[in-house]
Amino acid sequence: MVGLVLISHSDTLATGLRDMVVQVAGTDVAVGIAGGTDDGRLGTSAPRISAALRSALAGSPEGVIVLLDLGSAALSLELALEDLDPADRDRVRVSEGPLVEGAVLAAVQASVGASLAEVEAAAAAAATLAKIPKA
User: Which pTM does this prediction carry?
Assistant: First the structure.
């Protein structure tokens, strides 16, 4: 099974998105979240991301897809990845897909037992998803 790690500058956004993903995919998909800073402000925290990665990896033998909201979260993610064992790092894929749409599409694929590559592709494909179909 593939898990997800959702990283946002906002704890509220990360928590709400986790709730959305669980409603879509059920509780079989491990979802780790890291949002905000330790003092409740907007931002990201490498230790919070490390904890989210470890939690999701523990319940996801095939690996995890990471989605993040803003580019600066990638810096904290890089630090968190350095904190993982190399074997665990090899099971982490960082998606270029948008956070919300990518998380939902990835969760659907993960919930039906898709491979790490398939879940990663679903998350990335969300970048080109039309929100309003053209007539």
Answer: 0.94
pLDDT digits (tens, 9 = 90+) for 101-127: 999 999 999 999 999 999 999 999 999
Q: Maximum CA pair distance of the chain?
A: 50
* Active-site residue identified among 4, 9, 13, 105: 9
Measured between alpha carbons, how far is 94 from 107 in angstroms, rounded to an integer? Answer: 15
Separation of alpha carbons 16 and 125, rounded Å: 22
116-125 vs 99-111: helix axis angle to the nearest 10? 150
Task: Tell me the Cα Rg of the chain.
Answer: 14
126 has catalytic annotation: no
